[in-house]
Amino acid sequence: MIDIWRASASRCWRAWRVARRNPGILVSHPVLWDYDEVSAIEIAPGVCIGAFTELAVRARPDSSTVPGKLRIGPRTLIGSGGNIRACGGSVEIGADCIVAQQVSLVAANHQFRSGAIYRDLPWDESRHGVTLEDNVWIGAGAVILPGCRVGRNSIVAAGSVVTKDIPANEIWGHIPARLMRRLD
To answer: Which residues of the chain have pLDDT under 50?
Structure first.
């Protein structure tokens, strides 16, 4: 019983530190904050984060020399059940974005080698980080993989997997995501 209480108290303390350092954010509960340095988290006022979202930020990751950082611009909405992993790379989300429910933003992946235990390999430092520019809409259940940038005013359709950069003012969808149409 005490271990559960300590774990709960630790989660509350982490959430309080994030809220104190980033005033003006609205966080539904529960949200899991998993970080090593609260200074690696910068969230602008007016950001709303939905319940059951997990945010992992590692400024000093064990498996990479690339530091993690999370930046979220003003008035951005993060839907419930999201998975934002700024470990081994930065996740930068611009202003006025919509990141719908169950979206995953993954800043780094493990390397792979035949015959190796994948979980024991370091992270791939050749592709890291995720950037969503201003006024981007990421549909429910989409996945944005390391090294990808989604340009200003673009939309990623629900359930899509983004494996490369998306230019500004375009709608992309499918697995892997591809251009569906351009916006005027």
So the answer is: 1-2, 4-5
Give me the number of domains the chain comprises. 1
The domain containing residue 119 runs over which residues?
2-182
Candidates 29, 110, 128, 174; catalytic one? 110
Q: How many CB atoms lie within 10 A of CB 115?
A: 4
pLDDT score, position 1: 45
Report the distance separating Cα 159 and Cα 31, nearest Å.
22
Cα gap 128→106, rounded to integer Å: 8
Positive/negative CA dihedral, 16, 18, 22, 26 = negative
Could you confirm whether 174 is annotated as catalytic? no
pLDDT digit string (tens) for 148-162? Answer: 999 999 999 999 999
| CATH number where 121 lies | 2.160.10.10
The reported pLDDT for the residue numbered 8 is 56
Q: CB burial class (10 A; 0-12, 13-18, 19+) of residue 77?
A: middle
